[in-house]
Design goal:
The protein is α/β, with parallel strands linked by helices and 193 residues long. The chain has helices spanning 20-30, 42-46, 54-65, 73-76, 95-103, 109-118, 138-145, 174-182, and strands at residues 8-13, 35-40, 87-93, 124-130, 150-152, 155-156, 167-169. Strands 1, 2, 3, 4, 5, 6 and 7 form a 7-stranded mixed beta sheet that branches. Helix 1 links the parallel strand 1 and strand 2.
Length: 193
């Protein structure tokens, strides 16, 4: 008897470099249940930082997913009707990417993948990591919460005194948030203490 194929999950990483290790831990955790299709923003795929080298990130992503990451807008466009994903996760999602998604700006592989994916009414999960989530980006969170097929991983302030406007997803809750999303519901509470 043939095994059922795993559902296809687009796993998109953006340039929240300090959260890449946590995102990679999520990628490892999901590998058993999902056929992973990695997608990297230009910055995630090409910027070396104090948190790591871009080449090492790309190599680890490819090793876990079993395929090279999508790193161009042209490659990401295919995730619409011609090559649909079952679900798409942006983990981590920067405030910059969040703002672009809220305003319909498509100028990176990740934003193009999201646009193409949502074109077919498929579910999107956002694991936000933004220093301006409760200032410049607060309206964008509200905008996306009101859009069809978009859910968020529960999040909290990561440093209320030092960074009072910052929110970061609880990356350990991504599998639970994905399960809720596939049932058509937002995992609550959305804002954690």
């Amino acid at each position: 008897m043939d095994k059922m194929p795993k559902p296809r999950l687009g796993f998109a990483l953006t340039g929240s470099f300090c959260n890449h290790r946590a995102a990679l831990d999520v990628l490892h955790a999901l590998a058993g249940d999902w056929d992973l299709v990695p997608i990297l923003s230009f910055h995630a795929a090409g910027t070396d930082t104090r948190f790591g080298r871009a080449a090492d990130l790309c190599a680890e992503v490819e090793s876990v997913a079993g395929r090279p990451p999508v790193t161009t807008i042209a490659e990401a466009e295919r995730f619409g009707p011609s090559d649909p994903l079952d679900a798409l996760l942006v983990c981590p999602c920067t405030g910059n990417t969040l703002a672009k998604l809220a305003q319909g700006i498509t100028d990176t592989p990740v934003t193009m993948a999201v646009k193409a994916h949502l074109r077919t009414d498929r579910p999107l999960l956002i694991a936000l990591a933004s220093n301006d989530a409760m200032s410049a980006n607060l309206g964008n969170i509200g905008t996306l919460l009101n859009r069809k097929n978009i859910w968020f991983v529960p999040m909290r302030q990561d440093d209320p005194r030092g960074k009072p406007h910052s929110l970061v997803a609880d990356f350990t809750r991504v599998p639970e948030a994905l399960a809720a999303m596939t049932e058509g519901r937002q995992l609550l509470p959305l804002f954690l203490a």
